[in-house]
Design a protein that fits this description.
328 residues; alpha+beta; Uridine Diphospho-n-acetylenolpyruvylglucosamine Reductase, domain 2; Uridine Diphospho-n-acetylenolpyruvylglucosamine Reductase, domain 3; 6-stranded antiparallel β-sheet; 5-stranded mixed β-sheet; 7 helices; 25% strand; disordered N terminus
Length: 328
């Protein structure tokens, strides 16, 4: 998920008046608009207070117009992908939450309509909208026999979120296969950035401040579909054994410190399985927090604070959150 603030609240102060004013001002939209919607419905951890208004633009033009409108009106904007790696505070999100799931849901081959004559090892480029869930992208790659993204098995986010945070695992990261990205800048301009123009590192990509990822061009390689499927299944089985994929979670909570693993440090200080309310440090993997059913944002944030404090006191390592925390 990406988040930015367009100006100050100004005329948009006040919960009830905000929603009414937003709904009236956005009556021109074709896409859905949902008032006072609990963000718990739109986050993988299933926690979060209400958004004043959730808007789902129907296409790129509507997205562009919506962001331009928010910027000129001084309305706080929060851009939402799949709600993974995201924690929304109990007070919810003021202003406008903009979902990319309709406007940026395109997924296709870039250079052709068929792979019938493509040989093993040849380059195959994919055009992937920022709102495309990674599991859907992987499904296409398995079906077409394409390699390069098998490291993303079990990562539930979207292409846009993966680009912004350079999502990955020990064996690969998103920008290993990104050739270029298309961005919507705060001034409304749409620009492209090639891989060599973007500085990337561990869980980060230095994109222009306030920009929104629209799509990415990926460079994959043709392979045998059966072999790709077998490799994906193998990786998925391993992930299921070591990560709580069947429970609501927000992915890795903390970034790994240099030459160390956050999960190992958390386990070392005795917090694996520890809980606050219905928020629990996963017994499977200590760098995951799971929702046992009725966790609140306050439970989750209190648990994060306790983990950081205990690890720092006992190991002198200050963990940095990988999850994004938004709202009030």
């Amino acid at each position: 998920m990406e988040s930015r603030r367009a100006g100050s609240r100004g005329a948009w102060e006040g919960r009830g008046s905000v929603t009414s004013a937003l709904e009236a001002a956005l009556s021109w939209m074709r896409g859905p608009r949902l008032a006072h919607v609990p963000m718990a419905r739109y986050t993988s951890l299933r926690v979060g207070g209400p958004a004043d208004l959730l808007a789902i633009p129907a296409d790129v033009d509507e997205l562009q117009a919506l962001i331009a409108w928010g910027r000129t009106q001084g309305v706080p904007l929060t851009i939402l992908g799949n709600g993974t790696n995201l924690i929304v505070r109990s007070g919810g999100v003021r202003g406008l939450v903009v979902s990319l799931r309709l406007a940026l849901n395109h997924l296709c081959l870039l250079d052709s309509t068929s792979l019938d004559n493509v040989q093993a090892g040849e380059l195959v480029r994919l055009r992937v909208g920022a709102g495309v869930p990674l599991p859907r992208l992987l499904h296409l790659m398995i079906h077409q026999g394409l390699t390069g993204l098998t490291f993303a098995v079990g990562i539930p986010g979207t292409m846009g979120g993966a680009v912004v945070m350079n999502a990955g695992t020990d064996v690969g990261s998103t920008w290993d296969v990104v050739e270029r990205v298309t961005l919507l800048l705060p001034d409304g301009c749409i620009v492209e950035r090639a891989r060599h123009e973007v500085a990337v590192g561990y869980r980060r990509a230095e994109l222009p401040a306030g920009s929104v990822v629209l799509e990415a061009i990926l460079g994959t390689r043709k392979a045998d579909a059966g072999q790709v499927r077998a490799e994906v299944r193998r990786i998925y089985r391993c992930r299921c054994q070591s990560q709580p994929l069947s429970q609501p979670n927000a992915g890795s909570v903390f970034k790994n410190p240099p030459a160390e693993r956050a999960g190992r440090l958390i386990e070392q200080v005795g917090l694996k399985g520890h809980r606050v309310g219905d928020a629990q440090v996963s017994p499977k993997h200590a760098n995951f927090i799971v929702n046992l059913g009725h966790a609140s944002p306050d439970d989750v944030l209190a648990l994060i604070d306790e983990v950081k404090h205990r690890v720092f006191v006992q190991t002198d390592v200050l963990l940095e959150e990988e999850v994004r925390i938004v709202g009030e």
